[in-house]
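Project standup — Tuesday

K.O.: blocked on the structure for the chain from last sprint. Re-posting the sequence here as requested.
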Amino acid sequence: MTTTTIASRFNGPDRSGNGGYVAGVVASPLAAPGAIVTSTLRVPPPLEVPLSLTVEDGRAVLADGGTVVGESQAGAFDVDPAPFVGETLARKGYEAYAGRVEHPFPHCFTCGTARAPGDGLLVFTGPVDDADHPDTVAATWTPHAAFGGADGQLAPEVTWAAIDCPGGWSAHIDATPMVLGRMTGQVLSAPVAEREYVVVGTLRGVDGRKHRTGTALYERDGTLVARAEQTWIAIDIAAFR
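H.V.: unblocked you, prediction finished:
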């Protein structure tokens, strides 16, 4: 067993952890290079609280005392990655980011507009105005040097955070506030700070409160860097403020 703490800077809603970041933390004991891992969040992840992280029989569990915060196990994909849309459409998506107008969680580590460069990731995905890519958002994104290690590479949990919120924006999180419930992720190669990428989110379907989405991070030439499939859950936003 190890002990870990979700620092307050890695929030999604103001009082709980960023879903993708925490999903990456829960996945970390199982996430060998290229591994596909499914993380499920059971409760809003608490901030600045010592949490236990245990691994047994191929399952990792993040817990706050007797409360399971999240768990992970080996996963798999049954759909193609969210589509690469190209640099031109991604730049247009960045300019059209709806979060600049209405944002349910403006201090979110991944997509919050109230964060500064080097403090938040500033992944601002907006609608792709293209008939071949319906229900899809995209942006160009350059990770700040503050997020790179000594070799410039982003930590896996930061990469998971980067491919988190684009799914929510493809499901119109501005109109229907929601939080991440489950994320199956894969990091094929570590993103590098100060290099430009294309990040994409696409809506797969809606079933009641559940919104299924896919996300992906690409090199500018279309090489897949990381991807995820997600389930988002619509919420009463008052309970998260």
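K.O.: great, moving the ticket to review. The chain has four helices and eleven strands. The radius of gyration is 16 Å.
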